[in-house]
Design goal:
Strand order of the largest sheet: 1-2-3-4-6-5
Strand content: 35-45%
Distance between the termini: 23 Å
CATH class: Alpha Beta
Helix content: 25-40%
């Protein structure tokens, strides 16, 4: 973990692998896509192989990266965004304790068109290990 902290301090992106517990098969990644140590805030991004959607795997990984951000990096705010049609990702963020903040209109260009994004965040004072671990 100390190595991960050092990489973030050097403004390097670190991808965390998401493995299945039973066989350690790599099924996705999660990371801080942006970090401002000066402002003590970050934004997370993640991707999971479609065959593992809806199994709670990404929710567990998101809770862990949030916990790491508040407890090890001393962040005060962690955010995330998803395309409005991505209800699975919305559920992940909500189950991880994040609050919906609003819609960013035409916030991303993907698959040939501009798409609206939903923005979520969690603040340090809203975080507790007990809440996240449930």
């Amino acid at each position: 973990m100390d190595n991960i902290l050092e990489q973030y301090k050097k403004n390097k992106i670190v991808f965390w692998g998401i493995e299945l517990k039973e066989n350690r098969k790599l099924v996705g990644t999660i990371n801080y896509v942006t970090i401002s140590l000066k402002h003590k805030k970050a934004e997370i991004g993640y991707i999971l192989s479609q065959e593992f959607w809806g199994k709670g795997i990404m929710t567990e990984a998101t809770k862990e990266i949030i916990k790491f951000g508040f407890e090890k990096m001393n962040l005060v705010r962690i955010g995330a965004k998803c395309i409005v049609e991505n209800t699975g990702s919305q559920r992940v963020m909500e189950k991880a304790g994040m609050t919906f903040e609003g819609t960013i209109r035409k916030g991303m260009f993907t698959k040939g068109k501009h798409r609206d994004l939903k923005s979520y965040s969690i603040l340090e004072e809203e975080f507790s290990s007990e809440k996240i671990e449930k």
